Amino acid sequence: MNNFVFYSPTEFVFGKNTESEVGALARKYGANKVLILYGGGSVVRSGLLDRVQKALEEVGIDYCCMGGIQPNPIDSKVYEGIDICRERQIDMLIPVGGGSVIDTAKAIAVGTLYDGDFWDFYIGKAIAKTALKVAVVLTIPAAGSEGSGNTVITKVETLQKLSLRTPSVLRPVFSIMNPELTYTLPAYQTACGVADMMAHIMERYFTNTQEVEVSDRLCEGTLTAIINEAPKALVNPMDYGARANLMWSGMIAHNGTCGVGCEEDWASHFLEHEISAIYDVAHGAGLSVIFPAWMTWMVGHNVDKIAQYAIRVWNVSPHSDKKTIALEGISRLKSFFVSLGLPVNFKQLGIDTPDIDRMVNGLHHNKGELVGNFVKLTRSDSKDIYQLACLPFETGK
Ligand code: NZQ
Ligand code: ZN
Q1: Average pLDDT for residues 8-37, to the nearest whole number?
Q2: How far is the CA of 323 from the centre of ligand 1 (A)?
Q3: Helix, strand or coil for residue 78?
């Protein structure tokens, strides 16, 4: 196990009706002027936005709102939010939504206190040291941004979808997690969230670091729980237990717990970000296509941990050679994704002829000539993986 520092200071307030506590919590964390952020309107239709506003009014906190943040959030909303924060002297941002809204809030939070362009943080030109406070009301378990210090934004002009990762500066001060708020999620969004949280665990699990038994078992246990709970939430969207377990899994998957002491990989995420940047598909759907392709490629290059995963997570019989075991595990993962209504190749994702050269160029321009850690991918390796993601399920095994 490697040395590590793990700092996760977010206060998680979990359970039914917890959104009613947002005012008191905002007060507790020193808010005077709040900017509430939301997406395309689901929180307006559900009445959640009204309830959040009422909770702030009850404790006398001044607020204003900015809606219209789209999935795969873009830079123009960040600039708009920075202007509002500066003009109105906002001291806390409260995104009410999923990863796209939360990530926009985090970008605004770090950009408001910076003299230059907020994008500098995403391209590594500046280091994020301070930010306005961000507090979350979560409506979809998926990106894990409610517990992470990360944000992902797309710059429209260059179609670059880049992440800013901070150990602590952008971790929310509190996150309200009411599983009932996820009852209204369309089945496809629920499934995309499941693929994303599974991917967050697997990015950490597929490591070459040895003697990480606790992290391995946390990953395997959480993956198993997700695999058991996700179908229940799709059959009955108002199954509180399933929704609650998925919501907490999404947080556990990405606040760092599952990867402590490990060298993490993240190549699949970077491969996917090129897809959603260019084709504007849901991040989770891009991952359900790319992660099995990445694993299939790995069978020929670093098979041991893939075989371990197949045995421990998918109950594949250990009485065979590692390659066969690993391929069977990947096949079961794909079947699971398909059972949730997710795509497992580009065609199913709605992209008949993906521009692989463009994605490979974008990936290595943004992330360097070698990408990931489990095996460091060259341009030619990345191209192979995108090509594997084109194959029909049967031959893609
Ligand atoms: O915009 P509205 O109308 O609210 O609808 C949203 C949106 O269309 C809808 N939705 C959310 N909650 C709902 C709901 N509809 C009905 N009922 C509810 N309760 O779901 C759609 C997707 O929302 P979005 O916020 O985009 O989902 P998600 O949480 O999956 O976020 C995806 C973004 O997060 C980034 C992704 O790349 C993508 O841009 N990521 C952020 C990470 C981080 N900050 O740590 C890590 C991830 O790996 C990921 O890259
Ligand atoms: Zn993700």
Answers
A1: 98
A2: 35
A3: helix
